[in-house]
């Protein structure tokens, strides 16, 4: 009986230790499509080594690359000072949607949503395609494969008509 209690106690202790581990950044690369690799390189050029939790996807509608940056690793002023670099890289500022800053490079949309901890809004909001996080910047690149998938493609079509 004592042996069973000790085994149960040890198992519970191990479960508690595993459940309390600190979340480490992850880098999940789910798509090695050339367009996804290009978008990942853009993120590294714009943000340097601050990028965390990278994910890339390729679907019927688009290529997507997503990143996070801890709120304390990028201030709003630091983000806004990247304007010259973005212009040099061919990104044109389209505007804001809620808290998301949206840029276009042909059919590719680049969206940055600052964290709630920096913006200090009462309720989590989003941008066009990405939702605001509490303590992380949400950064997303998306290239449309089909028409009118993102705001850049919609804007391009609107100018043509």
TrEMBL record:
It comes from the Bacteria. This is Lipoprotein. It comes from Acinetobacter cumulans.
């Amino acid at each position: 009986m004592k042996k069973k209690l000790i085994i149960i106690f040890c198992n519970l202790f191990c479960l508690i230790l595993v459940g309390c581990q600190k979340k480490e950044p992850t880098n999940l690369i789910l798509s090695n499509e050339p367009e996804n690799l290009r978008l990942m390189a853009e993120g590294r050029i714009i943000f340097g080594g601050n990028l965390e939790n990278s994910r890339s996807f390729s679907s019927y509608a688009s290529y997507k690359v997503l990143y996070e940056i801890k709120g304390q690793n990028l201030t709003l002023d630091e983000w806004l000072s990247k304007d010259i670099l973005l212009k040099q890289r061919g990104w044109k500022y389209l505007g804001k949607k809620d808290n998301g800053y949206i840029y276009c490079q042909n059919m590719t949309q680049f969206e940055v949503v600052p964290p709630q901890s920096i913006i200090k809004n009462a309720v989590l909001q989003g941008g066009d395609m990405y939702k605001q996080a509490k303590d992380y910047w949400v950064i997303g690149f998306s290239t449309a494969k089909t028409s009118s998938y993102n705001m850049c493609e919609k804007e391009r079509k609107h100018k043509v008509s």
